[in-house]
């Protein structure tokens, strides 16, 4: 890929492009002593009078793995849009830890301040190797141009090696990302988010299109992140949800219909009626 093409690719890739901008830092203010890393309280979002989120309350504990399920149109994507600053709610509050008001922060500040988001479709740089993709994801620390040409330092090399191991991609480090399987591309993209060391990861349908074996590997990956990163997984694949879920939140018509462990949620008649019974 020529320099020009690489630069163009960056401008088409919102998250990495964001990282070119001066780094926002509110890690020092992040206070999770009360438990949650994310507080969504009484949040309402209306589109032309239709309530996509309706007085939504959602709390995610620091380091927890949470699954969010719900029928189409329940408000799952809108919830992630609100947390990441893409959509501003009509009412309510959203806090990262107990002190950082995310509604006062820009999308860029939120992304750089420790909230990573992965959209459904993997977006990696196909002609760069797996390892280079991980190095590029660190661009925020030093600017894209510098990161394309700089020699990785010891600490960064170690971080890349850790993430390669964590994502099961150590054997693919030198392969162009475009040659990876669909599942491997998804892991690489999660790895790229991990390079920025997010405290909270929001993942939209991460196993869509994966083989059964890839799903099993993904379940292991998510479980290994537990404790060090809070991971919120929005997923329709119930078998996958069952395989990883501790706490499940069911959204319906923009608010929480049920919450609890998988067995509790699965046997809740309201949930069966609106979602699982489909
Ligand atoms: N920008 C918008 N303008 C108007 N309506 C919108 C907009 N964004 C979302 N909606 C509506 O808000 C509702 C909630 O949408 P959302 O995408 O959050 O649901 P979801 O739970 O993510 O659904 P899915 O499982 O299909 O992805 C839907 O009825 C959708 O049509």
Commentary on this structure:
- This protein has 278 residues and is of the alpha/beta class.
- It has a single domain (3-123, 196-277), classed as P-loop containing nucleotide triphosphate hydrolases (Rossmann fold).
- Helix content is 37%, strand content 23%.
- It contains twelve helices and ten strands.
- It has helices at 3-11, 14-20, 76-83, 107-112, 130-136, 144-149, 154-166, 182-195, 212-225, 238-244, 262-266, 269-276; strands spanning 36-47, 50-61, 65-69, 91-96, 100-101, 115-118, 200-204, 230-234, 247-252, 255-260.
- A six-stranded mixed β-sheet has the order 6-7-8-3-9-10, with helices on both faces. A four-stranded antiparallel β-sheet has the order 2-1-4-5, covered by helices on one side.
- Strand 1 and strand 2 (50-61) form a beta hairpin.
- Helix 5 runs parallel beside helix 8 and helix 7 packs antiparallel against helix 8.
- The radius of gyration is 19 Å and the shape is globular.
- The termini are far apart.
- 43% of the residues are buried.
- Residues 11-23 have low confidence and may be disordered.
- Bound molecules: adenosine-5'-triphosphate.
- This is Urea transport system ATP-binding protein.
- Residues 38-278 form the ABC transporter domain.
- It comes from Thiohalorhabdus denitrificans.
- Keywords: ATP-binding, Nucleotide-binding, Transport.
- One of its GO terms (molecular function) is ATP hydrolysis activity.
